[in-house]
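Changelog entry: the Probable inositol transporter 2 isoform X2 record was regenerated in this release. Current contents:
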Amino acid sequence: MEGGIHTSTDTSAFKECLSLTWRNPYVLRLAFSAGIGGLLFGYDTGVISGALLYIRDDFKSVDRKTVLQESIVSMAVAGAIIGAAVGGWMNDRFGRRRVLLIADFLFFVGAVIMASAPGAALLIVGRIFVGLGVGMASMTSPLYISEASPAKIRGALVSTNGFLITGGQFLSYLINLAFTKAPGTWRWMVGVAGFPALLQFILMLLLPESPRWLYRKGREEAAKVILRKIYPAHEVEQEIQDLKESVEAEIKEEGSSEKMNIIKLLKTKAVRRGLTAGVGLQVFQQFVGINTVMYYSPTIVQLAGFASNRTALLLSLVTAGLNAFGSIVSIYFIDRTGRKKLLIISLTGVVVSLGVLSGVFHETTTHSPMVSRVETSHFSNITCPDYSSALNSGAWDCMTCLKASSPDCGFCSSPTNKLLPGACLISNDTVKDMCHKETRLWYTRGCPSKYGWLALIGLALYIIFFSPGMGSVPWIMNSEIYPLRFRGLCGGIAATANWISNLIVETKGLPIEEIEKMLEGRALHYKFWEKGNKPHEKSQAT
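Regenerated structure tokens:
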């Protein structure tokens, strides 16, 4: 297969990439312009976790109804599933460049709709548009970069797409933090995404189509012009010859260079094996929990005992920064270490770090501060009803208080030490303000814990190990392993599998104790559509 997976030489591919800055900036321009699609992908993944905290404050219907919160998050994922599935076919039919232009247009429209939404319904419509754009871009960006990159540094350049995904997540947390005090908070958070979409649209208008797609469609001369800009003079003729032989072999084998369908795809042994590997990697990437961690890292931080929204967002910014750093590590090692070895190291580290998180959350939930009758009675007429009527109220601790649901209750810490017994009170904004006025901390998601810093270490380890391997390799492999003729369609199938897996492990709206069990590895809730009897989510502290 032309442009197959390249075996690294003694020269670091990372250094080769850096040298392109002065030797051939055209290649970097192609890679980073297409990689903005990854930036959009990452930004959307990260921004909603912080924006949702403030959307709930503006739209009380969202705060009261778990189903609306679920819809705001998951409709973008549903849109991405459709976008990735349709995008695969469109890539082979219309070309990589046109699909990226369409993705940018959809994302821009979605960002404008969300930023101006007067209610939850239109906000969800905007999320669907954004999802369609993200789905198309998520599989097209690495494909375009792969087909417009010299073989020996292809892995490193496709890893720049991974870097821009994680960079987008980091940017989203930074913007979330920047707008926490601004009027319109969440509208700025979701609206800012329109600018990189517009920038990529303009840049892609000025860039050529993928040379390999052009050659496959019979536009050999146009493809050769682009390849001569990408490859050094002593390599370009061999690359053109390899591409020619690859296309001719496919045409000879299948009898036509244009006709293509799923049956032919599945009858081709190389494609079946590639799909097994490509889809498996994409599914497994989601099942190790990365998007759960990124979507809900502010919530996870609060579960570890950090009460403030702003503190949670700030600590999540550190997490996103580590994710971006891990992508840089991937760029350096992907072509010199190899895909398989990087995956093994990554998965080993992920397992260890999830073990750390499991232990921390187990300790947090089983050793939370007790509820004191003295502290609770300090606040008149706002005691949690379930606590007042409980026969075993002396055994109540903070976690028991947070699980009360008739109505929702919160934990107001001791003014001297948050680990000492505190008060169990009705959860609403008025009570929260009363708690804060006495220099106490207000908890509605997690409880005070002396182990909170270990949760941060566990999160950091998880991201550091995940990002260079499981974060980047699935996208790189899916841009390389398929025959040129099936590359767009197969890449779309694999990306669709990724987004479907993302939706399956979606946890928004699950009760606190179920999220804890998931993080502890005790339960994995595949049936996200079965809500059962769930209490409404509680407002988070600020």
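The chain is about 70% helix and 0% strand.
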